[in-house]
Amino acid sequence: MIKHQKEEADLSASLSEVWRVLTDKERDILRNNSKILHFKRNELIYCEGDEPKEMMCLLKGKVKIYKAGVGGRSQIIRMIKPVQYFGYRAYFAQEDYLTNASAFEASCVCMIPMDIITDLLKGNTNLAMFFIRQLSVDLGIADERTVNLTQKHIRGRLAESLLFLKDSYGLEEDGATLSIYLAREDLANLSNMTTSNAIRTLSNFASERIIAMDGRKIKLIDEEKLRKISKMG
User: Fold this and answer.
1) In the chain, count of helices (H) and strands (E)?
2) Over the stretch 90-109, which tens digit does the pLDDT of each residue have?
3) How far apart are CA 221 and CA 127, in angstroms?
4) What is the Cα gyration radius of the chain?
5) In the structure, what pLDDT confidence band is assigned to residue 150 with cuts at 50, 70 and 90?
6) What mean pLDDT is reported for the chain?
7) Which of 72-105 are b and which e, b meaning 16 or more Cβ less than 10 Å from the residue's Cβ?
8) What is the reported pLDDT for 75?
């Protein structure tokens, strides 16, 4: 019972962006039709080719959106953090999912049926504007990442990925260690490079005293230099 009440509180807090533009009646509809699911590390949340039926809001944990590539390689498209919404673009586009989503670590996700969202959109222009803004922001980020991942050299791409992880998930209490521990393969997939290139470039950064590594932990020692490398490409 206590766990259920806590999850309800997490739901209300995490949906606050949407909550503000809803009427009391609309909030009740959303609350009564949402469900909270828990996913283990590496567990799939949705798969490419699935029919989109729900909008998702990450309450706790970390989720990666990725697409399988040639030769078994994957490309990480986005990293989701609390309390971001995901999984709804394909529904609005009237197509199946073009990507996969999996829990990067144990995660808690609020699932909201898209037919409920559609009904609310018809009577609430503020909610419609919220989604227009979200999709526009996501498109801008996707456009910028496409250019960066295709035009920047390996060092610039990896530097950008490390800064992206820092900006997305923050740092640990020491003020330097990234609060997310990625396998070298995941970091490579995020940076559009092979795992061997990611390992080699990380080692170069470490020898130049730009970062320090302890297993999967990465500490940013010289963030200013890292930003210069990212900017120079």
Assistant:
1) 10, 10
2) 999 999 999 999 998 999 99
3) 42
4) 19
5) confident
6) 88
7) eebbbbbbbbbbbbbbbbbbeeeeebebbbbbbe
8) 85
Cα gap 10→82, rounded to integer Å: 11
Tell me how far apart the alpha carbons of residues 162 and 150 are, in angstroms, rounded to a whole number.
17
SS3 112: strand
Percent of the residues in the chain that have a pLDDT greater than 90, as a whole number:
61
Question: Taking a C-beta distance cutoff of 8 angstroms, is the pair 79, 190 a contact?
Answer: yes
CA angle 140, 146, 151 (to 5 degrees): 130
**Token digits of residue 167:** 């900006």
Contact assessment for residue 65 and residue 100, using Cβ atoms and an 8 Å cutoff? yes
Helix axes 125-151, 114-123, angle to 10 degrees: 120
Is the pTM here over 0.70, yes or no? yes
Sorted by sequence, the CB contacts under 8 Å of residue 83 that are 6+ apart come out as 13, 14, 15, 16, 17, 57, 58, 59
Rounded Cα distance, 33 and 112, in Å: 7
